[in-house]
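Hi R.,

Here's the chain you asked about this morning:
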Amino acid sequence: MSATEILRVERAALCETLETVGPDGPTLCEGWLTIDLAAHLVVRETRPDALPGIVLGGPFARRTERLMARAAAEGFDALVTRLRAGPPLLFRIGPGAPANVVENWIHHEDVRRAAGSAPRPRDPAVDEILWRSTAWSGRLAVRRIRSVGVEIESDERRRVLRRAEPRVVVRGAPGEVALFLSGRKEAAVVELDGPHEAVALVLAARFGL
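And the predicted structure, written out as tokens:
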């Protein structure tokens, strides 16, 4: 399947999970319920002026929070309906499609794992997109680590994110590695190999944007 087709399937599955859990369900995003996560996805795709707050945070985040509150005021059902209709063209063709697969997949797991669900069965096409995404997202995630090298491994594929010694290897399925690098460390099903002190530094480091 193409990234656009995968995105359509993943978006439908995400919406089904949101409807099952309802507006007040927990998520892995600190401080967010499912209605907040749905509002985030809608705002991210429909309000370009919200992107500085999503990416940079800080003073820009206040405007993004206001836009999310306005979206949430539409009601949970309306938000899920908008999500089910599919993302704008920019997010579902070309390079936007794989990036949006990753965004939707991770946020879907935010809802599923917070509700106690186990990892989903793997899909080779989804795995490929998630693994490719770690080439840039992984290096961005570990940029704050100064004294430890980080390498990721999945299905005998390896990628060096930061060259240094001692080194920590994060090993797992592509989706689990992507979850770990996005900051969902406790929810990600991964193994960490390396000296105890180095592993502790990686676990304590702040990942994500």
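Residues 3-114 form one domain.

Let me know if you need anything else.
M.
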